[in-house]
Amino acid sequence: MMSGVSSAALPHLRPASTSASNRTSSLQPAGPDATDAATDGFRIDVSQVKPLTGAKSISAADNPHLRDLMATNWLMTHDTSATQSVVSDDATENTYAQVKVDGKVVATLYNGGSSTMTNEAAGKIGKLEDPPDLSGPDLAQWRADRYAERLGGTVEKASTAITQSQWTPRESSSATYSRDQLDAAFQAMLAEGQKAGVQLQSSYLASRTQPGTSADVSA
Description:
alpha+beta
């Protein structure tokens, strides 16, 4: 039976460079006197203010591109069927092989090609460039062999390992929807917004109205 991954075999993460955060900005905020002076010197001549003519309000429904973008986002947000059946790449049932040193698991490879390893193992392996033409189980095998070479360990293939021909790459998360789906989604989105507005107004009235008084928010 294949031994499980211990807490020492957690994924090794290399954080992004933080050199930029250590730099001290040479820009200093303007003094309060300069800011106050600029504010005090600014005045609006209300006699020159004129009403905006010829303008009209528009809604998202009047912009086909914006309407479809909003409908697509609504569909993707409410479509949970795809995520319910997806198994993580590093799930136990996706294990391809383990690299062991002196009987201890120091790295685990998965059928999709990803891997996890201990910090000590990552330090010994160092930088390792993957071949650009490998993916899936083939990449997992290549990585396992390189890890074992650099760590002086052995590769133990898991019973859940699959071949390259059995592997199915993950599909793109992007989706294409029909005209009918987009139109129906936009209407459903509007209905949700109206329902939320009614609930918000009801909550406001309930919180503001006291016995013997009334509130009017229709203005």
